[in-house]
Amino acid sequence: xxxxxxxxxxxxxxxxxxxxxxxxxxxxxxxxxxxxxxxxxxxxxxxxxxxxxxxxxxxxxxxxxxxxxxxxxxxxxxxxxxxxxxxxxxxxxxxxxxxxxxxxxxxxxxxxxxxxxxxxxxxxxxxxxxxxxxxxxxxxxxxxxxxxxxxxxxxxxxxxxxxxxxxxxxxxxxxxxxxxxxxxxxxxxxxxxxxxxxxxxxxxxxxxxxxxxxxxxxxxxxxxxxxxxxxxxxxxxxxxxxxxxxxxxxxxxxxxxxxxxxxxxxxxxxxxxxxxxxxxxxxxxxxxxxxxxxxxxxxxxxxxxxxxxxxxxxxxxxxxxxxxxxxxxxxxxxxxxxxxxxxxxxxxxxxxxxxxxxxxxxxxxxxxxxxxxxxxxxxxxxxxxxxxxxxxxxxxxxxxxxxxxxxxxxxxxxxxxxxxxxxxxxxxxxxxxxxxxxxxxxxxxxxxxxxxxxxxxxxxxxxxxxxxxxxxxxxxxxxxxxxxxxxxxxxxxxxx
Length: 496
Prior knowledge:
Elements: H1 3-9, E1 13-18, E2 21-24, H2 40-51, E3 55-60, E4 67-71, E5 74-77, H3 81-91, E6 95-99, H4 106-119, E7 124-128, H5 130-134, H6 136-140, E8 147-149, H7 156-165, E9 174-175, H8 202-213, E10 224-227, E11 230-231, H9 242-246, E12 251-252, H10 255-269, E13 273-276, H11 285-297, E14 303-305, H12 317-325, E15 328-336, H13 340-347, H14 353-366, E16 369-376, H15 383-400, E17 402-408, H16 416-423, E18 427-430, E19 433-436, H17 443-467, H18 469-481, H19 483-495
Parallel strand pairs: 1-3, 1-6, 6-7, 7-8, 8-9, 10-13, 13-14, 14-15, 15-16, 16-17
Antiparallel strand pairs: 2-5, 4-5, 11-12, 18-19
């Protein structure tokens, strides 16, 4: 074998990095507290890279749980870019892959890439993730960054590594699969190996989540994990960033794969709770039924929830009943607005609000907790529309215990609302984040509406606590296990 052939056959040393997270602590919504969960995207890509024959490591900068001030109401959760770069340099990888999923973290990722380049001038630096996909053209202009992977990375990164290993330049700096000879989206998700959980300290994630760093303010699990059992969304909500990375076509793991995956996590890591983060867990009703049947058959099945929301019009009463029997702790449905015109014409979510009411009634009848998502401050919305949504949400809460989870529209990179608001000059900086200002409302107007409804929710919650003492004790146990949440939100709620 010639020297060139030996080099081409040698495995690459790859370091995949989750950067420190920016926390906008003054924000009413979005990244307003330090949170951590398993970096599922990196774990899945790492498994694919390993199957391709390369050496791979994962470094999550958030695991230190350090906090440092950035100014303008922002803090950094995790090691600083220079500290992360030192850790990477000590491992001397050939290729460094940096994840960037959130728009607030873009400056940090650029700083981290530059810090790595200063220490490892010969390394290949790659960036990917939701935010990176949306602003790939911007990233590729950064001197420290060699490639940007758009969309799903399990096939594209191994393909790029093959080019690098052979000493070749990839056909394009933006790796979208088209110029490199692989599809943009992965059709057969079951062909992917399970995420490489063995490459991270699972116990540290469980510990930090128990200490109040879970993305869920009510974290019921002591050893909870997040799972995506499907990708893609056929709907077209204007605020959602998922389409840029995972597309409109629904692709799901088979129920058999999902159940084997859960069984693996129970056996190997003793998990007790699953957060199904799918955008469309219930879209394929046969698949969802099969998953429920499999959970029912498990001797040690975990409890679970749907924190990313499901569509009310894609549920049947029989499925709601079966979900509760199969360990569902609570369901979340995405409502977004109580005004049909805003749903259909502005947000682009064709949802029958009567279906929402039906699901609320079903959950109340069988004793399954229910939450409902609402967003405020969408372009084209008026203050009167927001008040109508408030009335709708509170009516469902008072009548049917559907707890309102309210937030402000964030114009994320790659979304229709970001594009339209940018074109109309409606994007403004506010509270360390980017918000929307229109002729109908300012960011301050929207905050007043959201603060008002949160006051109303809190008062209603206190009244309902008298009628549901056991549920209240359950909430109390969760909050006491998460002192950081108690310190942050209780004084704020009492002031309001």
